[in-house]
Amino acid sequence: MALIKVKTREEQKVKIVPVEEEDYKALTKKRYHFSWKSFKGHANVAVYKLQIPGEDDILGVMALIDFPRESRIEISLLACSLENVGENKTYEGIAGNLIAYAGRLAVKRYGKNACLSLVPKTRLKKHYIDKYGMLDAGWQLFLEGKVLNDIILKYLL
Predict the structure, then answer these.
(1) What is the CATH number of the domain that holds 105?
(2) pLDDT tens-digit readout, 21-66
(3) What is the pTM of this model?
(4) Range of the domain at 123
């Protein structure tokens, strides 16, 4: 897993791990566009962070909900840190790495029946379709089968 530093085009290795209790203090609405504390202690939601190994800074965060009866994991929320959004961002690939990681979890749990979904904000729907190959299912977008495997291979290898 790696990000690309926008100015130099250098690759930067990253790790994705579960959010820890003390991380919620840093996950502010100002920097991550949402009050992530609302997920704290929520039994049905797993929250993950993306970091550069050896550094404490959280560059991206996502909340996942598992739907075992549907062989599906839903990205309930995904956010890049404020400095990694838009034209002047420091790194590119944060969202892609998080999506691929969630996809890998789905495949690990559900094999060939795995599905990854999300409900995008209206203005981001076309972006998710164009950039990540997500398929339109009306109010949700999803990845499954070959398209899911392609995104995993693109970002995680």
Answers:
(1) 3.40.630.30
(2) 999 999 999 999 888 988 887 878 999 999 999 999 999 999 999 9
(3) 0.93
(4) 2-156
